[in-house]
Design brief:
Elements lengths: L1 E10 L2 E6 L5 E5 L6 H13 L18 E9 L6 E9 L5 E4 L2 E3 L2 H4 L5 E4 L5 H4 L2 H15 L3 H21 L18 E4 L2 E4 H6 L8 H41 L5 E6 L8 H7 L1 H7 L10 E6 L2 E2 H4 L2 H23 L4 E4 L2 H4 L2 H14 L2 E6 L13 E7 L2 E3 L26 H8 L1 H16 L8
Parallel strand pairs: 3-15, 3-16, 8-14, 14-15
Antiparallel strand pairs: 1-2, 1-4, 4-5, 5-6, 6-7, 9-10, 11-12, 12-13, 16-17
Helix pairs in contact: 4-7, 4-11, 5-7, 7-8, 7-11, 11-13
The chain binds adenosine-5'-triphosphate and magnesium ion.
The site of adenosine-5'-triphosphate has 16 residues, from α1.
Length: 457
């Protein structure tokens, strides 16, 4: 899949930007603060409705403006018809998301249309920070390669939420006239003046808590069953990914032999049902579930020591690149679909050799790529007919001078120019057709004004 057209209004410092990217490599150049990362961030937001730079979406809205809008026309793999994706995020209130003019209410439906892999300066967090990011890494792959995963994952999320809220309901309130400490490790629940163990309460069919314990056993069973199914899928995915991963890691980091292992979220060989029952008191104290596939982690080790703790910063960056590239390759291999690679600040990230490996691999996979960089002096892929360069200055696209090159070979109009110094067709179009740009902008704003029923995301 690839983005054919992109419209951004009032996002960060980008008041109005219209791009017609090519299906290959799109280089976004410009000085510091010109808005390069903001374009990458806007595409990422269209895929996931969240930023990789901030969790406060208000920071994304151009100062002084009521909302930002993003619009993309996407050519999906294997489809003749384009998909239009529009998103309006007001300063207050819910976002409005539309797919082909139909409002959608669930985030997961958005990620089915634009799938991105992002590589940015904070990318090493994947290896050094919380397990949540590594779980998301694995789940990205499973989600896009296994059609059953989405449903299982949605069911699990719902089930876990139910169990956690029940756990909180089952936690007895302290009675002012009672000296017992219910938050201690004693397995207690209060009935009148008597202390009753949870096991007793369970034996009474949960009547103490209005049948809550009976209900809990239902959620326990569902948590365990879904955890096992999800883990099975994650393991199968990881096994396939390892094959490609080892090969790419071998190119980026030839001196390392890394091991990738899934920690499933509870002790291997233990029955999760048993573990949930055994840890009920702990879970009640915490108000959430300690064991299950939501606690999984991807352990990456070099000589049995965590890679995150031993590799240099540069090596960690290369490892993240290798991992993200491997996912795109496997996606292609298993589904014949491509994704969009967003690479922020390429030169600051990788040395020349690593940049070459990266670009060659991306060329092979035929993914659409957006690369931001301060300079235009980049290692362009050898097939330069699949490159476009966009230059930004203070939030605006800089129109390139038309390319003279009278004896240049004819090129596909949708994939010009072919060198960093040549003009970008879309930039030219925007510069030479201001009326069209104005109309498009008005349309984008009108779309925003028409947003009446906010979507719950
Ligand atoms: N909500 C906002 N409204 C207006 N401007 C903003 C907002 N948020 C950020 N900016 C500005 O947007 C500009 C572009 O930021 P961005 O990070 O995209 O630049 P960049 O081209 O990637 O720079 P660098 O080369 O330093 O990475 C910055 O000048 C920043 O101060
Ligand atoms: Mg930047």
């Amino acid at each position: 899949m690839y983005i054919k057209r992109l419209l951004i209004t009032d996002f960060r410092n980008l008041e109005y930007v219209e791009l017609e990217p090519c299906s290959g490599f799109n280089f976004i150049c410009g000085p510091n603060g010109s808005g390069k990362t903001s374009i990458i961030e806007a595409i990422h937001y269209l895929s996931l409705a969240r930023s990789f730079r901030t969790s406060t979406y208000q920071y994304l809205i151009k100062q002084g403006q009521p909302h930002f809008t993003l619009f993309a026309q996407v050519q999906e793999d294997g489809s003749e018809v384009d998909t239009s994706i529009g998103l309006l995020r007001p300063r207050n209130g819910e976002p409005l998301i539309k797919i082909n003019s139909d409002p959608i209410t669930r985030m997961v439906d958005l990620i089915d249309h634009i799938y991105v892999q992002i590589i940015h300066p904070q990318g090493v967090d994947l290896l050094t920070k919380s397990a949540e990011m590594r779980r998301a890494f694995i789940d990205w792959g499973v989600y896009y390669t296994d059609p059953e995963f989405k449903q299982l994952w949605l069911q699990y999320r719902k089930t876990l939420k139910q169990r956690n809220s029940l756990l909180r309901r089952l936690t007895p309130k302290r009675r002012p006239d009672c000296a017992s400490d219910y938050s201690s490790s004693a397995l207690t629940a209060l009935q009148g003046d008597a202390l009753l163990t949870l096991h007793d309460a369970w034996a009474q069919g949960g009547s103490v808590f209005g049948g809550g314990f009976t209900e809990l056993s239902v959620w326990d069973e569902a948590v365990a069953r879904l955890s096992e199914q999800i883990t099975h899928k994650r393991l199968a995915y990881l096994e396939r990914l390892q094959v490609i991963l080892q090969e790419i890691v071998g190119q980026f980091l030839p001196d390392f032999r890394l091991k990738f292992e899934l920690n499933q979220g509870w002790d291997k060989g233990q029955d999760l049902r048993h573990l949930l029952a055994q840890n009920l008191e702990k879970d009640r104290g915490l108000g959430y579930t300690l064991y299950g596939c939501h606690r999984a982690d991807l352990k990456i080790k070099n000589n049995n020591i965590s890679a995150g703790a031993t590799l240099s910063r540069g090596q960690l960056k290369m490892l993240v690149y290798a991992m993200r590239l491997a996912q795109g390759m496997l996606l292609r291999q298993l589904t014949n679909r491509t994704c969009i690679y967003l690479i922020d600040d390429l030169n600051s990230e990788l040395d020349e050799r690593a940049q070459r490996i990266l670009l060659d691999t991306l060329v092979q996979c035929e993914h659409q790529v957006f690369i931001s960089n301060i300079q235009q002096e980049l290692h362009f892929p050898s097939d330069q007919s699949k490159c476009k360069v966009f230059t930004l200055d203070r939030g605006k696209l800089v129109p390139h001078a038309p390319a003279p090159a009278p004896d240049a070979p004819a090129q596909d109009a949708s994939a010009t120019p072919n060198a960093p110094t040549a003009p970008a067709a879309s930039v030219e179009a925007a510069a030479s057709a201001p009326e069209e740009a104005t109309v498009a902008r008005a349309a984008a704003r009108a779309e925003g004004a028409a947003a009446q029923e906010p979507a719950a995301v």
